[in-house]
Amino acid sequence: MSSQATSPKPAVRFASRGSSHYDVALAMFCVVLIVSNIAATKGIEVGSGSLALGPVQLWPIVTDGGAILFPVAYILGDVIGEVYGFAAARRAIVVGFAMAVLASVTFWLVQHAPAASFYENQAAFESVVGPVAQIVLASLAGYVVGQFLNAWVLVAMKRRTAEKGLVARLIASTGVGEIADTLIFCAIAATAIGIDSFGVFLNYFVVGVLFKVAVEIAVMPVTVAVIGWLKRREPTYWDARTAA
């Protein structure tokens, strides 16, 4: 009686996070998060006229300034999770969280510090950074849930397919993370940018998810190229001792 030979399961590899490349990715991740939180204090409306379906506003498109840059945080999260693994992604999430809190506390202290007699922009300063605390709370709540889901889904899929299926796991992990992140963020931050109806809120949420996922797909060739570049330049990625 003969038994059919089975091929060995492919090794799942991650690079050591003790690398200058990881440090650069971590720094970029933190900067993108903080800048996005500041930019998100401005509501953006694209289009003229009005189109609604019952209570749901379909047009114009409603979003915020953070949408311009924040998708890059998920792209960087994908790069870190794919190359360095879940522990490295978790460290990036925690450090980014701490830096965002630091930025929020700093803005709060500066806002409430006595203005100099020659300083004429106190009202403008408060109008811009005043909502940052609420925006940061919304961003951090959504960010922690979304980024952990993003990293967990990506790494879990990689453990099943190793080096195969990179594009599929990048899209799937970003989709799951962005839906959770955007829903939580919009629910908390909507009033900070002036959204006061369910129809506009739904527009804000749906547009946010579609835009962020669209950005991920649009820059997918760049993301894949960066991941490939990092894998080739991280000696520990191909070290047998780092294979799971």
Automatic annotation (TrEMBL):
GO molecular function: transmembrane transporter activity
GO cellular component, as recorded: plasma membrane
Pfam families, per the entry: Vut_1
Transmembrane segments: 21-39, 59-80, 92-111, 131-155, 167-195, 201-230
Annotated localization: Cell membrane
Entry keyword annotation includes Flavoprotein: no
Major subcellular site: membrane
Keywords from the UniProt entry: Cell membrane, Membrane, Transmembrane, Transmembrane helix, Transport
Its membrane topology: Multi-pass membrane protein
Domain of life: Bacteria
Cited NCBIfam families: queuosine precursor transporter (TIGR00697)
Role this protein plays: Involved in the import of queuosine (Q) precursors, required for Q precursor salvage.
Family designation: Belongs to the vitamin uptake transporter (VUT/ECF) (TC 2.A.88) family. Q precursor transporter subfamily.
Protein name: Probable queuosine precursor transporter
Organism of provenance: Aeromicrobium phragmitis
UniProt lineage: Bacteria, Bacillati, Actinomycetota, Actinomycetes, Propionibacteriales
